[in-house]
Design brief:
2 domains, Rieske Iron-sulfur Protein, globular, 19 strands, disordered C terminus, alpha+beta, 8 helices, Naphthalene 1,2-dioxygenase Alpha Subunit, Chain A, domain 1
Length: 346
Amino acid sequence: MALGRTASQDNTQQSGPQLTLPSRCFTDPDIYTRELETSFRKVRQPAGHAEDVAEPGDYLTGRIAGQDIAVIRRRDGVLRGFFNVCQHRSHRLLKGKGNLKVAITCPYHAWAYGLDDTLRNAPNADNVCGLETADVSLQSVAIAVVGPMVLACLDRDVAPFDDLYPGVHREFNAFAPRMGELTFHRRSSATLACNWKVALENYGECYHCKHAHPTLVSALLDANNYRVELFERHHRHTTSSNPDGITLYEVDADDSDQALNYANWLIWPNYSFQVNPGSNVVVFQFMPDGLEHTIENIDWFFGPWVPESERDRIVEDHTRTTCRKTSISARRSRSVSTTCATTAAF
């Protein structure tokens, strides 16, 4: 099983051991605060599902790096994102998801914004000296769609996704060629008693898979040929299915050229796109919830070729695996907080 290989810009493989971070990186409150400012507010994060904003007027809401945001499909088909607060008294504008027919109206003082983010009407605005509604608009956030997910970044000047993570979008679509037929099935969530980086490091390798997830390797994946490639801002994980056959669930080998293969793209800093054999797609996200806790969200997407009853069984089997992973992450978190070592071989 490959422990991991680094890849340069020209994709030349370079060998060498990878080291863990010093233990203080997992336990220092100041480092955690800086991470929130630099690693989460400056990069794209999963904000919702693309299928929820497919039609003009559709909107969804979410929370990114401690800020409420909303995403809406304009009448011209363009997808827009903005901070989900009125420019008057910062009242929340939208809740949940739905469809708007006319305008975004603040429930506090009825300021109304068009789907292009601009203020269209404010009661009594004509009697307020200096207030020009044409000069007021909602504050935008950067939006991108990758696979089944809408990604949002609080920094509207963030570079395009394809520039930051070259090849990921194209490879993702290649491994799931029927991406447009996938629909959201359900979300699995767990609270992990560990720093977010402990959870991410556990997820970012399969060195532990034979021992911690025996069903995964005996019934689905070929762990002996598991390959991890490291790029500047992402990892790529690939392997084939178990050479003795897949017994975890049924897979139609003729569904696509990649139907029997596995691929995963771990995106800096804390989420991944995963394609399992059978072309079902899973999106993982590890959200910091304080220095010592992490919320893990796992969104499952299936195509119409996977029976409904089979979908639930796949998710439930993985949920049982996640319970073991939760225990592993918690134990390692306790070790990190007490260890005297500053680095260790990955």
